[in-house]
Structure formats: structure tokens, C-alpha cells
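Data availability (excerpt). The following record was deposited with the supplementary files.
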Amino acid sequence: MAHAPLRLPVAILGGTFDPVHFGHLRTALEVKQELGIQQVRLLPCAIPPHRGIPSASPGQRLEMLRLAIADESALSIDERELQRPGPSYMVDTLQSLRQELGETPLCLIMGADAFVGLNQWYHWQEIPELAHIVVVHRPGWQLEQIEQEAMCGMVQQRLVREPAALAASSAGKILFHPVTPLAISATAIRETIRAGKSAAYLLPQAVWHYIRQQQLYR
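Predicted structure:
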């Protein structure tokens, strides 16, 4: 017997947001609007396990997020990784969210490049058991670009084509979804600022004002 659809999914988009920019924000908004998601939470990472310590402090990155979405009710901020000591392992975050949400569907939004490296993450095999994975990518990107055999096997077992499938179970599915390609990176923004140039129009004006006020990335 088929299970009745559950509540609309909650989605999270994690990152250092150092700084948050339009690439992050547009992706989150499109996922919210196009996949039947009830809310998208931006989840700032405290101590990233796979990269260097962010340039801005946790408090500064959180304030930039608040400024960025002040007028956007579709997006919210989840601070749990900033409040938890130690490295910000996604599996720990998903376990915490699962305890909070019960059987409500939960989606982890990932870029295609991050997804290809998922098998390098801490306890990565547990992640699909805790959440669906929504892999966002540029239009024209092909599923065949995932070359690692282990990942291909996982994709074949869990792949769904329709967003409605995400609401039919609490976790376990993988959906690939194209989003508007915005070639903006936080690294490039920091380098632009460090070079004494303006980062206007790469991120919200309120965030750019805050960066100048706090003299970040100089």
C-alpha cells in the first residue's frame, strides 16, 4: 500500500557564507519556489571540516546573512552549527534536524561539485538515510559527469525525477535540479575586496555596506 504524502519538505543550504552572495541566495530561492519546499534554511558553518577557517567571524557571517534576507520571507537562518562546538559535520546537523522535525521530509541542497566529493565527508553513508539530497547544477550539466562508481551506484538506487517524490518520504531520495547559473564565488569576492576593488552587485547592497563598515577581507 502506498504511503500518503507527508508534509512539504524543509530544505537546508549550508556553507561558510564568507560572505553570502547572490549565488547562494538565488539558488535557495529557486529551490523554494520550484520544488514545493515549505522553507529553506541557510545554515552557516562554524568550523568547516574540509577547508580553512573563514575570514569573517561567526558573528559577522551571521549578521551578513541576516542583512541579506531581511526582506525575503521565503528564507530563514538556522544557527545550530554556530552554537555547536567542534567541526561542523553535516551528519551531526542532519541528526539534530531529524530529531526536531520527526518524519517531515528534509532536503540537503548541494552543488554538483560538492556532491561528487560527498564520499569524502564524515560518515557520508548516513546522510541519505537522514535527508533527501537535492543536487543543484547549471543547465546542461549531465548526470554522467559523476564518474566515481560508488557514487553512481548510490545515485541509481535513489534517483527521482519529480519533485513530488521528495514529499512522499522523509529521506533517501536524490533529485538533480538545474538552477540559474551565477558565476559568483565568495573566494573571488574576497580577492576583489583585498585588491581594493568594489564588490557591488555581487551581493546584497546591505551586505556590501556591512563589509565596508567592518573593514572585512582587506
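Summary of structural features: Strands lie at 10-15, 39-44, 75-77, 106-111, 132-137, 159-160, 174-178.
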